[in-house]
Each structure stands twice: as structure tokens, then as C-alpha cells.
Amino acid sequence: MPQIQVNGTTLYYEIHGSGTPIVFIHGHLSSHHMFEPQVEYFSKRAKVIVLDLRGYGNSGKLDVEVGHIMETQCSDLCELLNKLHISQATLVGCSSGSVLAQTFAALHPDRVSALVLVDSYFAGCFGKKNHLLNICEACSWLSYYLPAEFFLRSLRVTYNRWRPVYSILRKELYHKRPTESIKQRMELLRMEMPANLARLPMPVLCVAGSQSEWFVKQMQRAATLFRHVQLATIEDAMYPTHLCQPHAFNRMLLDFLMDQHIYRTREAYGG
């Protein structure tokens, strides 16, 4: 397995294809497997990098305090790009992976050629909770320790129309890391988004599935926070949109990168 020492930990990563780099960042309770259809499609057209963030998949432990997790994971990504000799890349983040992508772009705007947020939300968007809701939230974390079999029926019902999605999410359930996942969840609940999003120079594409009303509203909010932003909804899809409708998503992402002159025609359609 390709692993690399960065920032005091070990990161699992894969590189597929060559050309203009695009980095896919997975969300909470998942791993690099969340982008299997994108790896297959874009590796013929670009240099695709997928990784497991610290605390997920085959990467090292989430051995930092809550309050420093997102900052540390951004540092991990920065050092990984340095060691791979990638000066600038397109970042595609799904769900909480898009929170990391936005944070990274705010910290290192010169390293990001474009930002693509899929089924995204904004840190702090859940608002202030009262004491009772905080207790309920903490109790729900106990479910992280339940065996994967406990969730399979509801997962199968939810994604009955999208069997490939069920297959990938089922695999992720069997490789969850409960304690580290709870720490990551605590970080996501407490943090706030960077203040300089409106000043970011790179183009931004926000994508949500039409059947995820909450995510659609979050993406509509995004259109008010960024300077150069496009908003798109993919029909007959829900979280994770890029897996429910991979062909539509891949084509949309490619068209966006072509329109922004990030990929040249030969790079985009070669292979």
C-alpha cells in the first residue's frame, strides 16, 4: 500500500494517471474508496490523488486534540502535496471533506486552482445547541461503536435505487474507527468557517443532489459566500451525489474545469 510519512503521521494515498492534478477529499466516516468512479474516469484525463485523512482508512491515528484537528489535517495535506511536488491542485471535497477543502483554500489560496464542494455544509451551520440537544448529540455517538450489521438494513433501504452506492458505503461501515470518528465529529461541531472565503481568488463549484433539500440549501448559501462561484444541482441524487449519479457528476466537473481553463482540451479528452 502506498504510504508516506508527513507531519508526524502516516498517510495512505494513491496516484492515478498524469497531467493536471486533482485531489479528492473524502468526508466523515469514509475513506478514499468514496471516489472510485471518479478515479476511474479522471485518471484517463488528469493526475488523480486520493488519500485517507489522518484518523481514517489506512492512515495514521488522529492523535491531536479537538480544536487542532482540522488545522492538522490541512497541514498533512500541504506536506503531502509538497512531497509529491505538486505546487497547485484542484480540490474536490465531499461533505465534511469540503469543510477541510475550504479551510485549506483559505490557508493556502496559492495552492488551489479550483475548489469543488459536493454535498457540502459549513462549519458552524448547526448553530448553538441547548444543553438537552448536546446530551442527545453525545448519546448518538455511542452508535459509532455498534457493529456494521446494525446499519445495513437501513442503508440498503435508503440506497435501494443506487446499489453501487450501497456497496461502497457498506464497505466503509466495516472499516470505521469509532473513537477517532467521534473526535472528528466534535471538531466539526465546534469550528467556524474562515473569514476570508469571499476573498478567495479561485473558481468554486458547489454541487448537491436534488433529493437532499438540506444540502441544496447549503449550496445556495455558498453562492453568497464566494466571489467566483457556480451552483449546480444533479437530478435523482442524494448524498453522496457523486456516487448516486457518477456520470452526470464527472461530466459536470470536467466541463467546469474546462470552462475555467484549468484543463487543456488535449489533457481533458486524451487517453
Automatic annotation (TrEMBL):
Stored SUPFAM superfamilies: alpha/beta-Hydrolases (SSF53474)
Pfam family, one: Abhydrolase_1
Matching InterPro entries: AB_hydrolase_1, AB_hydrolase_fold, AB_hydrolase_sf
Domain AB hydrolase-1: 21-120
Superkingdom of origin: Bacteria
Entry protein name: Pimeloyl-ACP methyl ester carboxylesterase
